[in-house]
Design brief:
3 strands, 3% strand, 14 helices, cell cycle, cell membrane, 3-stranded antiparallel beta sheet, transferase, mainly alpha
């Protein structure tokens, strides 16, 4: 067992310190860092770059009559405050043992469902650009779909632990989870927020697959979900138009319509070339590219920092997702199945949402309203990203305690 755990730690070069053995000559446990410092530094680097780029992308917005009453630093200050609140929440959350999250996972899921219902009620939910996705809290707005991503990861991991003995039975193991995801999906599509539903479906399916659900069942669920997305596109004219615009963004019919954001995003990447136009040198952010500080932040990074900047962001997210998966595998090896499945579900969330956002910005995927995790402007997203990563760090801390011979 000792050799197996050693190999798990050695296998990934991203550990905070090199580890050869857990005991010294005296037989006492050797000292380790209590958490993964490299993961923290990568997260801080992404957030710092995000703060700078949010300011760069939003500094000219007050020139627009819609934002005329805002100061040039309005979004910078709001984003910095969101990060501060998120850090405080993360420090609190990291104190909570993982078994507490396992115990209350179903209740977190129920709370997320209630908020998804509340946001649809006129007078409670706030509508922006035809979508009702936010609950006003006075000083800020909260987006329940961000909590739903955390809730589905907790619930799916808890569900698989409870159903481990019947995971080969479709009706007892898979059907209840499929119904839960379908309910969340219906509430999100009523907002509408198809992008969040895609991420939540990916998290749930990923955890079911990693939990050992029969491969045939997994592919059956995949086929049903793909079929559902095809039907939604087929019977929704505006979604159909988005697909056609994505396939041919330079068509005169779409360039000034459904493909307006995509065409200007591609122009931004083209202007950036290898080394970019320099920080602050973006032209597309000057009221050409809508939502430049949220959904299309990567396009501004591409224009100002070029291919080098975009490649650095992609590599950072790849490393982060890989490291989170490694923490999850360590937990599973230590017989902490809930913790392991949850961590890997978060790897799917962070990596998958980053992939979708980057794909949309680069024209690889149809346009969806998903932010770039840890970087884009948005208080709810930053808050839930850091809270989630705090739980992952807690899992890593408990893994290391167990490997030192202690208790989680």
């Amino acid at each position: 067992m000792k050799e197996r755990l050693l190999s798990l730690v050695k296998r990934d070069g991203s550990s905070s310190v090199p580890i050869r053995d857990w005991t010294g000559a005296s037989g006492q446990p050797t000292k380790l860092h209590g958490f993964d410092l490299q993961l923290i530094w990568v997260v801080l680097a992404l957030m710092a770059l995000g703060l700078v780029m949010v300011y760069s992308a939003s500094v000219a917005l007050p020139d627009n009559p819609k934002f005329a009453r805002y100061a040039p630093t309005h979004f910078l200050v709001r984003h910095a405050l969101s990060i501060l609140v998120a850090f405080v929440a993360a420090v609190i959350v990291i104190q909570v043992p993982v078994n507490v999250w396992e115990k209350f996972a179903p209740w977190v899921f129920v709370a997320a469902l209630l908020l998804l219902v509340l946001v649809l009620i006129p007078g409670i939910g706030k509508g922006v650009n035809g979508a009702r996705r936010w609950i006003p809290l006075g000083f800020t707005n909260f987006q329940p779909s961000e909590l739903a991503k955390l809730a589905i990861a907790l619930y799916a991991a808890n569900y698989m632990v409870r159903k481990m003995e019947v995971k080969e039975n479709f009706f007892r193991a898979v059907m209840p989870m499929a119904v839960s995801v379908a309910v969340v999906g219906l509430l999100l599509l009523a907002e509408p927020d198809m992008g969040a539903f895609m991420v939540i479906a990916a998290i749930a399916m990923g955890i079911l697959f990693l939990g050992g659900v029969n491969g045939r069942m997994f592919f059956l669920i995949t086929a049903v979900l793909v079929g559902a997305f095809v039907l939604m596109i087929t019977f929704s004219e505006w979604r159909r138009e988005r697909i056609f615009a994505y396939l041919n963004p330079w068509d005169e019919k779409y360039t000034l319509g459904k493909a307006y954001q995509l065409s200007h995003s591609l122009i931004a990447f083209g202007r950036g070339e290898i080394f970019g136009q320099g920080l602050g040198g973006s032209v597309e952010k000057l009221h050409y590219l809508p939502e430049a500080h949220t959904d299309f932040l990567l396009a501004v990074i591409g224009e100002e920092l070029g291919f080098i900047g975009v490649a650095a962001v992609i590599c950072a997210f790849f490393w982060l997702a890989r490291r989170i998966f490694h923490i999850g595998r360590q937990a599973v090896a230590l017989d902490r199945v809930f913790a392991g499945l949850f961590a890997q579900g978060i790897g799917i969330w962070i990596g998958g949402q980053a992939f979708i956002n980057m794909g949309v910005n680069l024209g690889v995927l149809p346009t969806k309203g998903l932010t770039l995790p840890l970087m884009s402007f948005g208080g709810s997203g930053i808050l839930m990203n850091l809270v989630t990563l705090a739980i992952v760090l807690r899992i890593d801390i408990e893994n290391r305690q167990l490997m030192r011979g202690g208790r989680a």
